[in-house]
Amino acid sequence: MKELDVFEKWPFKVPNFDKVKAKEKELIENFKNASSEEEALRIVKTYFKETSKVDNELTHIGVLYSIDTRVKKYEKAMDLINEMGPELQALNVEFNKAVLNSKYRPYLEKKLGSFLFKMYDYSLRSFDDSIVEDSVEENKLTMEYSKTIASAKIEFRGETYNLPQMGKFMQDLDRETRKEASKAYYAYLETIKDKLEDIYDKLVKVRDRMAKKLGYKNYVELAYINMSRYDYNEADVKGYREQINQVVTPLVEKLVKAQLKRTKIKNPQIYDLNLTFADGNPMPFGTTEDKIKNAQKMYDEMSKETSEFFKFMDEHHLLQLEAKEGKQSGGYMTYFPVYKTPIIFSNFNGTAGDVDVLTHEFGHAFQGHLAKDIKIPAYHMPTMESCECHSMSMEFFAHPYMGYFFDNPEKYKYKHLEESISFLPYGVTVDHFQEWVYENPDATPDERDAKWHELELKYTPYKVAYYGDNTYLMEGHRWLLQSHIFTSPFYYIDYTLAQVIAFQFFNLDRKNHELAWKRYIALCKNGGKYPFRDLIKKAHLKDPFVDGTIKSTITPLIKELKSYKID
Ligand SMILES: [Zn+2]
Description:
Strand order of the largest sheet: 3-5-4
Bound molecules: zinc ion
Shape: globular
Number of strands: 5
Structural class: mainly alpha
Radius of gyration: 24 Å
Order of helices and strands: HHHHHHEEHHHHHHEEEHHHHHHHHHHH
Oligomer: single chain
């Protein structure tokens, strides 16, 4: 294969959708009329190749647009993609259906693996022409939510800021700044509260309707299918949440007490919890270029594979890290199936978050790279909870090298580990809340807020204790800020599951680095060939759903936290 060019030189191409659709339809027809099992398999492989080609082009357009949303030709291409999306999905489902119903199915299953057939089966169970209109309405509502949040304008000390920009003031070292910023922030949220409650109310109704049209009891059932949860169910998740509540909630309560003692704040309020150390939160040194150089040193030392692969990404300009005008917010990794390479996108802003996002997204990218020889596209990457294992574990494999980024690496490591632990009770709150909402689709907005408050008291009472006179938080509106609840329903427990897996890699890494690394590489190479629990078992890790796993995973972390020199 020809040597890959640097990212900027890749040819920009908008697929001709009429041709794409015609080609896919033809392949589906040919498949249905295949006269032998070998021919059927050959057509399936051609179909994979065709869709990968289109996927590669669509991914390219998406990345270019996210890097500079001001460019008209990218915007136009994006609009076209959004318009064509449902039609391409419908064709895909048609193909999946044909494969599932093929008379050559036993042969195909032997050649392609039965797991693929399970995936196809799920894709059919979550789609039907009767829900297309509802689905369009759902998209409109989630876009309205995102727009409302993105267009927030908060007046603070003579300037105007959006919601994320207020973050840095709310964790400022100066207490008065934190207090004032927090006041302005929540006063603004109060003004859009009713609008957000209304959007959500409509979303709940439309999702409930879709679930019932497809024959499900409620939306929870449909959501588990949508999220491709092949090997765990609501009951498993319930038990898992209980484990978190029993083991992690009391631990975080202690950590918060220790934090407030450390920062010596009298009569602490919720905005004081953002400050981890009395002298401020750890900040990385250097420019973005310095950070890339230092990351190269880190990955050189970590392993031969990480060294070569990070160098490859840097040389091909696949590390798009700097915040720039016109760039979309956030961070992500995506993969080009034809070029067989990932790309990392982020918005460095000089905080410790830069290092988190770099190691996290590199973990995703490294997995994409390690699994690049998997021939069947659906097996290249697993479901969301498993994908997050690759990235969140990499954040911890990077711990020994934090001296390359911070003057006081111990403080960074402490904060990173502490935040990762505290995330678990919050994460399960978000999941428990959604489950209740969709089991009670007729609840009023007030009843939902009351439920949220009740769940906060159960899982994160150590936060509620400092809400003070903040009525927005006291009245249970905090969930309105958790975008996943609106835009990616039930995708949240995934992060917590992956966090538990990352902790296990971290614990093993402390005891036996070679073994931990070997198992991590094997997990990445397995891609999406198996569902979550099988992947975990094959990596010799403990299953988060099994009682006792949370306790045995968390216990060594307490000792680890105590070992850091942070005073
Ligand atoms: Zn991730």
